[in-house]
Specification:
With about 100 residues, the protein is of the alpha+beta class. It has helices at about 50-65, 90-100; strands at about 5-10, 15-20, 35, 40-45, 70-75, 80-90. It contains 2 helices and 6 strands. Strand 1 (about 5-10) and strand 2 (about 15-20) form a beta hairpin.
């Protein structure tokens, strides 16, 4: 599965490379896979103003993976549409399975 290129196993966590589209009509995750950028796409309804989209991103990922928002950290790209997030207490195989469904 090609989307696995966007995932990295860190042992006690998983990092995910994302392509974020803020201000969408409907929040969608996962919204597809950009094979050229090797990033999983996510659409958010919040505008990219004053951290609103980043807050929605963290909440959306925590809900999707069934974890706390404190376990989801934006590691890179907090002011960009290309972000890398790290999710603690999440296993790589479980992440692949959930995204593949």
């Amino acid at each position: 599965m090609s989307f696995e290129n966007a995932l990295k196993d860190r042992g006690d966590s998983v990092t995910i490379d994302l392509e974020v589209t803020p201000g969408a009509k409907k929040a969608i995750f996962p919204g597809g896979y950009n094979q050229w950028r090797q990033r999983i796409e996510i659409r958010l309804t919040s505008a990219a103003q004053k951290g609103k989209a980043n807050d929605e991103l963290v909440t959306t990922l925590a809900d999707f993976f069934g974890t706390n928002t404190s376990s989801v950290i934006i590691k890179a790209g907090s002011r960009s549409t290309k972000k890398t997030v790290e999710i603690y207490d999440l296993k790589y195989d479980e992440t692949v399975r959930m995204l593949g469904d």
